[in-house]
Amino acid sequence: QVxxxxxQVRWFTELLATQRRGTDGLPPxxxxxxxxxxxxxxxxxxxxxxxxxxxxxxxxxxxxxxxVNLRTASFMGLGEGLxxxxxxxxxxxxxxxxxxxxxxxxxxxxxxxxxxxxxxxRQGNGPLVDDGSLPIDPQFDRAFKDNTxxxxxxxxxxxxxxxxxxxxxxxSMPWFALALGVQNWHLQRAGLPWNPTVAAAMREKIRTTRSxxxxxxxxxxxxxxxxxxxxxxxxxxxVQVHNAFRRTRDPRARGQVAxxxxxxxxxxxxxDLVELxxxxxxxxxxxxxxxxxxxxxxDATVIxxxxxxxxxxxxxxxxxxxxxxLGRVGDSRAAAPLLELLNDTSQATAxxxxxxxxxxxxxxxxxxxxxxxxxxxxPYFEVTGTLLGNGKGLxxxx
Length: 398
Prior knowledge:
Number of strands: 0
């Protein structure tokens, strides 16, 4: 396995070293996806193999000779392969991401922010014995000082994201908010404490935001950064997100804020979520969001409502949303109505197909949908037809 991994890394790095289509005849899209694959490939590799791959990605990330899509994909690759540890390759990779978040092009900054959150929420090796070969830069080195072994770079990422959340471009701030949410979500699973400063900043964003384009992102970020929070902080967050739900009328934004209420498990909002579920029976996207919100909060009353919707829906889209939501519930009571729809030959083919989707979701062995690994860290700005292709790609499948 080690020999195979070395050969694969060597092949990927040689491929990425060619900036334009050359004698190999490969189109740019291949190198774009190769950058992400290389980062994934070395997550648990030996240090020298890891270093070779991440140094290659860092070079791409900092080279203005690289196409913008390739640079952006290299940030995603770094997010997959870097850690919060203090190995030289991690330190240099994190430096490059912080610099891009600060001064890169708009698209680059957004993806670099998510990559920085992913990388700094993954424990690395430590402590590092500094042999004098690393450049001295107080701006970065202070963040590495006196932190827990393997998490030396955590504060570097957190501070950079917080700084730009406070003073960045308005249309970029939701990305920084979601990055902080992603970071906290992973840190909670690693057993680290939540950060009250980040949580307070997100509550303030929710309190002051009136834009339908941004409120959904801030609400979900707020739900994520409050995972593991104290009861007092959760109550404050619930109040702010519930207020945002009440004042938001845009259907898509309203659904996103509803999901945030589910993440927070805010009991006073439960009645509003149930009403949303009932009123959105024939609005597929909103129905799905309301169902997810109630499922997250553990409300079992969602099952009878969805079964009733499945039976009475007037369109395949509404029936599909109800079937998918029933599958997501993971409750055995959902199996019978889905099987009944599947076996009813008088129903339209599309309706029966949605029943298959629901049953597939219901019977999945993992907590996340089967296509999540393929969708994660996917450079959708240069996607392939096998992933998304007029309803025939892997990610087009429900």
